[in-house]
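Chain particulars:
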Amino acid sequence: LNAHDSNTSNTREAIAIPNKGKRIRVLRIRAIQEGADGRHLYEVYFGTGSAITTNPGKAVDILDIPNLGEASTRTFLREEGPRGLRDELLSGRWAGTPPTTVHKIMVEYTEES
């Protein structure tokens, strides 16, 4: 489990970085809005592209976070979730208007050889 405080811009941020030589396998990602800030969309994808549309084949999900609420991907079984390449990080980015408050991003994942 990796708990991450989101940024408040449209700039890509690393939300999980694998250990050297490993791959990330996503189990579930959850975003929590603790302070009223409106509805926001959060893109989650593998790699260092500037947005999820840079390489759609690396997309994991777009979380639709309601005002004062939370959203999550579905929960994947251990060996069935989206998997990145060796040494490939998991990125997140706010789509559209970014929030003005920090959101909690919780990434549940395993690492594979």
User: Anything to note?
Assistant: The two ends are 18 Å apart (CA to CA).
